[in-house]
Task: inverse folding
């Protein structure tokens, strides 16, 4: 992102700054609504903006509200560029689609989720981020425990069903790092699940995120706080690839910034993830790719996971039938469920 004071040009090759206005070049294509929301989050008012395909960016003219100087507003607005960078931008991603589209959101089954975990392990994934939630399922728990035993760090969104919700899974499994969510005021996200299984919290309210078709969106949900912690885990493994899952958990919790009641609590766990402190706590080891996945599986594994439908974490938890019934839902904006046929919930 590039930001400068708005200037008025005259025909005699002269120009002057316009008081209280800045021009910002924002990577990617933003709609007027997205640009308005971005401006609102930074105490600005969008006067006009336009997508310029020639340079692959959106140029906007914004008015500064309050008594901030152009320099102060520009510095704060520019900080958004860093926030839009992933927490571990150099990590390699292995995307596995374990949830299918359903009328009420994403939906899956315990069989499909286990198949996805098996695929991740076969392709040597080092960290698995699970943005779905639902009821307890013995088959999924076995798969997650087996993955953790192989040294894979398992991270999951706590869920978005609020204070009265029982613990949701996979976040509540002992081998999983369960992540709740905080807002800009260091308060707990109202829809975030809580409980004795919460290990740590991370920001997730009004997060400016990439969206399909090279666009952006602002969204909330524990899915995003879990992804942040997964990225932080990748940074720790970059420093020391020999770290075990329990050691990664311990470092994250020991270096977290305490919020709420002193020490660990059921809302924030050990506190809010502190990336700088966590990374600094790990002595660097010889350079090794972080969260590297192999181009080929350790053995033949289908490239696609053709599976029955499951539900996204945006919906309420459903009861779990037998081994191949709907199990869980993807976690996205507040919702959740995880039956043997698994409705997914948004976290």
Result:
């Amino acid at each position: 992102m590039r930001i400068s004071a708005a200037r008025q040009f005259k025909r005699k090759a002269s120009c002057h700054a316009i008081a209280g206005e800045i021009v910002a070049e924002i990577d990617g294509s933003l709609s007027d609504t997205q640009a308005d929301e971005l401006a609102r989050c930074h105490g600005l008012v969008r006067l006009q903006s336009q997508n310029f395909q020639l340079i692959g960016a959106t140029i906007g003219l914004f008015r500064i509200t309050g008594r901030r100087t152009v320099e102060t507003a520009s510095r704060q607005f520019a900080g958004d560029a860093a926030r839009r960078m992933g927490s571990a931008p150099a990590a390699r991603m292995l995307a596995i689609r374990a949830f299918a589209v359903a009328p009420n959101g994403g939906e899956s089954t315990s069989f499909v989720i286990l198949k996805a975990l098996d695929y991740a392990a076969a392709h040597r994934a080092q960290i698995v981020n699970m943005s779905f939630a639902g009821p307890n399922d013995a088959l999924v728990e076995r798969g997650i425990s087996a993955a953790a035993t192989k040294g894979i760090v398992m991270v999951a969104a706590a869920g978005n069903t609020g204070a009265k919700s029982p613990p949701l899974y996979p976040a509540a499994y002992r081998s999983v790092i369960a992540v709740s969510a905080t807002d800009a005021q260091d308060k707990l996200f109202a829809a975030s699940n809580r409980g004795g299984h919460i290990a740590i919290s991370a920001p997730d309210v009004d997060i400016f995120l990439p969206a399909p078709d090279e666009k952006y969106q602002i969204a909330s949900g524990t899915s995003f706080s879990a992804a942040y912690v997964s990225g932080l885990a990748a940074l720790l493994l970059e420093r020391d690839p020999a770290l075990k899952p329990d050691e990664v958990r311990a470092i994250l919790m020991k270096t977290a910034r305490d919020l709420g009641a002193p020490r660990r609590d059921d809302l924030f766990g050990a506190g809010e993830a502190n990336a700088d402190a966590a990374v600094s706590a790990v002595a660097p080891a010889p350079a090794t790719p972080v969260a590297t996945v192999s181009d080929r599986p350790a053995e033949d594994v289908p490239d696609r996971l053709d599976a029955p439908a499951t539900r996204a974490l945006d919906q309420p938890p459903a009861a779990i039938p037998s081994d191949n019934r709907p199990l869980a839902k993807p976690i996205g904006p507040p919702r959740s469920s995880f039956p043997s046929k698994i409705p997914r919930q948004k976290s």
Observations:
- The radius of gyration is 22 Å.
